[in-house]
Amino acid sequence: MRDGADSEIAEDEALVARIQRGETGLFAILFRRHYARMERFFWHLGVRDDDLYDLLAELFGRAFSRIAGFEVESGSRYVSYLYAIARNLATDRARERGRRPELVPLDEAWDEPDHSTPGPVQTVLWREDVAEIRRALERLSPSDREIILLSYDRELSCREIQQIMHKPSVSAVTTHLSKAMKRLRQAVLEHPARAARS
After folding, report:
1. Is 162 in contact with 169 (CB distance < 8 Å)?
2. Do 53 and 15 belong to one domain?
3. How far is CA 62 from CA 15, 20, 39, in A?
4. CA R_g for the chain
5. What's the total number of domains in the chain?
6. pLDDT tens digits along 142-168
């Protein structure tokens, strides 16, 4: 839930436009709004410990110093711009460390249901389903997991994912996402726990 200061300005892009006109103090709202989601994204990209906080600081430092270059009129969402910077920073840091970036388990990416309405049986079944999906995701390639995470957990558009993942076109994103979802579905169906429950 946004606090009072945040709720006065509905869109990130409106904030960015005001910051570009000189109201630089408003960047604190963007920082508060997106810090936790960028922290989770870095975590899922395998960034840990001191690197995590270094890269978060660098992300928001770059975002602030380059805010004049963000084209509000382009129709791009500011959050997708932050994801693109974060992904590039994580990739660069992984190269420095001599390893490839790899997505880690998505435990934090799945919210638990509201337990005020479902009964205990529904809750147990929901948790089993989520556990099966997590296990299936673990067996996918890092790029398949990343595109699913960006599309379904972060609710980004195909155009935004194209920019973040440096895909050649929107159709390349939709093709990759479709194939990744088929592989995920197959991995879920092949899991022994699913077979036992069928």
Report:
1. yes
2. yes
3. 17, 15, 15
4. 19
5. 2
6. 889 888 888 876 668 888 899 899 999
Q: Report the alpha-carbon distance of residue 50 to residue 31 in Å, rounded.
A: 19
Report the alpha-carbon distance of residue 172 to residue 63 in Å, rounded. Answer: 27
Q: Kindly state whether residues 93 and 136 are assigned to the same domain.
A: no
Sorted by sequence, the CB contacts under 8 Å of residue 45 that are 6+ apart come out as 86, 87, 90, 101, 102, 103, 104, 146
pLDDT tens digit sequence for 111-143: 444 444 555 555 555 556 667 777 788 888 888
Distances (CA, A) of 7 to 46, 60, 79, 81, 85: 32, 21, 17, 21, 25
Structural domain range at position 80: 1-102
Q: How far apart are CA 103 and CA 89, in angstroms?
A: 14
Q: Are residues 172 and 123 in the same domain?
A: yes
Helix (H) or strand (E) holding 7: helix 4-7
Query: What is the spatial distance between Cα 44 and Cα 79, in angstroms, rounded to a whole number?
Result: 17
Judgement on whether residues 3 and 92 belong to the same structural domain of the protein = yes
